[in-house]
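User: Please fill in residues for this 147-position structure.
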């Protein structure tokens, strides 16, 4: 699944925020979600909404770029990252950890058969411990996929 939120220029494994209007050659701009064997997909609820995509799209351009960079890093590593980038939550569910200044973004995900990484739920962490309500939402979304 493609993310149309932002486009990136990839130079020597660095992702640089770019746009055609900024003088960057449009022939070397790539969509970062399409260059690996693993594919990143967003959980879509019964009403057709993708909560993680909506969360990312509401962020500032710089925060969005950093989250997409971490998601791409996750994809490049086949959904397997250790701390400080990722942490096991429960069962197959893991947490992608993206800190931007004082904002601590968290995205719950799991890897699925067919080389897929499914992004389940995202939130801004404001407490030291991950809130149970956020974990329960991710588990609910996971179970909706498992049905």
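Assistant: Residues filled in for all 147 positions:
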């Amino acid at each position: 699944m493609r993310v149309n939120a932002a486009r990136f220029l990839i130079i020597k494994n660095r992702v640089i925020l770019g746009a055609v209007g900024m003088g960057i050659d449009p022939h070397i701009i790539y969509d970062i979600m399409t260059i690996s064997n693993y594919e990143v997909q967003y959980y879509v609820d019964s009403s057709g909404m993708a909560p993680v995509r909506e969360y990312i799209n509401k962020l500032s351009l710089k925060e969005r770029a950093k989250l997409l960079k971490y998601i791409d890093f996750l994809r490049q590593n086949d959904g397997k990252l250790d701390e400080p980038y990722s942490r096991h939550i429960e069962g197959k569910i893991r947490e992608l950890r993206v800190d931007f200044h004082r904002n601590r973004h968290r995205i719950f995900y799991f890897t699925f058969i067919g080389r897929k990484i499914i992004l389940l739920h995202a939130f801004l962490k404001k407490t030291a411990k991950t809130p149970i309500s956020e974990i329960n939402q991710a588990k609910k979304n996971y179970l909706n996929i498992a049905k």
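For context: The two ends are 21 Å apart (CA to CA).
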